[in-house]
Amino acid sequence: xKKLLVLLLLILIPVCVKAEDxxxxxxxxxxxxxxxxxxxxxxxxxxxxxxxxxxxxxxYKVKFISTNDxxxxxxxxxxxxxxxxxxxxxxxxxxxxxxxxxxxxISKMIYTDGYEVPVKGYLYTSNNNVFGGxxxxxxxxxxxxxxxQRVKKTTIQMVPSAERKIGTHTTISAGSNELIILTSPxxxxxxxxx
Length: 194
Hints:
- The chain is mainly β.
- It is 8% helix and 42% strand.
- The chain has one helix at residues 2-16; strands spanning 35-37, 42-47, 51-52, 61-66, 70-72, 75-78, 83-92, 101-110, 116-123, 131-132, 141-148, 153-160, 171-172, 177-182, 186-188.
- A hairpin with a 5-residue loop joins strand 8 and strand 9.
């Protein structure tokens, strides 16, 4: 009988309480919005392994580690030691007249606490993000006469011939400092605090 009375009281009490009588409890929600890292942002990184056109193939996985904190509006959006992962997108073998070349795409970054953020970017070079690909060494040098106006004298200067050697392989050494450039904005909803 006691159980029945307790059950009835529990059912009737909420009906008797009006909504106006309840306290207004507001939860403290974290005041945080996502941050957009703009397209064209440079991120300084260090290479963790040797990458070479001689030993690696297209699709080879690469890893870089950020060397500095990157701030945007007083927020550390890319802390030091954040890892960046990518792959070799394109390799051109060395040929006569041209050195080997490669293009490295960056696809994600992982914060020190393990949180993963997808990014779109490349390892930066001033040559449209292509490492290597320059003109190879000449096969030989030929002498050419140069007339000097001031001293009224002719000197012989060695100039490269039009023939070129086979190109050499391109290598990015382990521990080298590089730059990543973002090719599209990255949406960051997570930051690491100490």
